[in-house]
Design a protein that fits this description.
The chain crosses the membrane at residues 12-33. This protein is 56% helix and 0% strand. The protein has 39 residues and is mainly alpha-helical. 0% of the residues are buried. The protein contains 1 helix and no strands. It has one helix at 14-35.
């Protein structure tokens, strides 16, 4: 497999940034759905 084209491997904070981004998106969707009483 060719892993040279993955930008998160060349940036020191690539994986932590991706994990934080996923957490922020999930939390914001949860809050939005909870406020609209969809959950």
């Amino acid at each position: 497999m060719n892993f040279d084209r993955m930008p998160e491997l060349h940036w020191a904070f690539g994986y932590p940034f991706a994990i934080v981004l996923v957490a922020v998106v999930c939390t914001s969707l949860y809050v939005i759905f909870k406020r609209r009483d969809w959950l």
